Amino acid sequence: MFRLDGKTALVTGASGGIGAAIARTLHAQGARVVLSGTREAVLAAVAGEIAPDGERVHVCPADLSDPAAADALVSAAEVAAGAPLDILVNNAGLTRDGLAIRMKDEDWNRVMEVDLAAPFRLCRAVLKGMLRRRAGRIVSIASIVGVTGNAGQANYAAAKAGMIGMSKSLAQEAGSRGVTVNVVAPGFIQTAMTDVLSDTQREKLLGGIPLGRMGKPEDIAASVAYLVSDEAGWITGTTLNVNGGMAMP
Amino acid sequence: MSEIADKVKKIVVEHLGVEESKVTPEASFIDDLGADSLDTVELVMAFEEAFSVEIPEDAAEKIATVKDAIDYIEKQKAA
């Protein structure tokens, strides 16, 4: 089950921990994967680690803060892969945290641009072909804070909540063509950023997670692999909360 | 039939997968040719691409039949 042989997937933000894990998992399920991100050297390293022989793996760097980059990326990815995109995983994102009363417009706008407008443009670009081919899978990686909110992240939470509303709308627009659009909302994932927490901070954090541990990038990757599979063909417009039980919206 | 009419017809046949004989000038995309709202948007986008014209939203809304499309594109091309 959940095999992706013959499918081509574009994963943005593939140089990061979660993105790399998603790319690795989709590749392991048989998909041809195109890795995108801003850091070309890191992408190349991830690609080399996924498939040392370069089999079914391609690198297409892109800076999604440039509005023209999304269309260009989809074209470049299809050329690199030599096939139309069956799967889009919107994973790229960034944060510019700060309490609202001190948040600059620039920090609000940058997060909206990269975390919400760019995924929209990528969806729009891939949907044209998917609608024509009567098949396709889009999964966007949001965040638990898009559902619960979080002090210090008004911009990021708004962008991630926006991603959920956008995906529900696209799911309704594309449903009649067999294209599904879903969201995965991760909770706390163990990364370099959470590794530096103090023991007290960590204990407090874990106290709020019924499953008693932080998530691994692979926990997110597995849910993406499921949602992009043929078997998940009757699931659309949903948000899968992968957070150890920290929030149960 | 004009070259534009031929090309419009071909796009409609290809996109909606209907018999060529059904694509008469009076045929309505939605009522006669089985298109849904998404099809009509895709058709307009296909026309835009094929004829290198821009069809704004308010004009696109008025294109209901094959003849509407041909007339609009002929007018744009003549302008």
From TrEMBL, chain A:
GO terms for molecular function: 3-oxoacyl-[acyl-carrier-protein] reductase (NADPH) activity; NAD binding. The active site is at residue 156. It catalyses: a (3R)-hydroxyacyl-[ACP] + NADP(+) = a 3-oxoacyl-[ACP] + NADPH + H(+). It is an enzyme of class 1 (oxidoreductase). InterPro entries: 3oxo_ACP_reduc, KR_dom, NAD(P)-bd_dom_sf, Sc_DH/Rdtase_CS, SDR, SDR_fam. Keywords: Fatty acid biosynthesis, Fatty acid metabolism, Lipid biosynthesis, Lipid metabolism, NADP, Oxidoreductase. Pathway: Lipid metabolism; fatty acid biosynthesis. Transmembrane segments: none annotated. NADP(+) binds at residues 38, 91, 156-160, 189. The keyword Oxidoreductase applies. One of its GO terms (biological process) is fatty acid biosynthetic process. Its EC number is 1.1.1.100. It comes from the Bacteria. Residues 7-192 form the Ketoreductase domain. Catalyzes the NADPH-dependent reduction of beta-ketoacyl-ACP substrates to beta-hydroxyacyl-ACP products, the first reductive step in the elongation cycle of fatty acid biosynthesis. Belongs to the short-chain dehydrogenases/reductases (SDR) family. NCBIfam families: 3oxo_ACP_reduc, PRK07231.1, PRK12826.1-2. Homotetramer. This is 3-oxoacyl-[acyl-carrier-protein] reductase. It comes from Gluconacetobacter takamatsuzukensis. The lineage of its organism: Bacteria, Pseudomonadati, Pseudomonadota, Alphaproteobacteria, Acetobacterales.
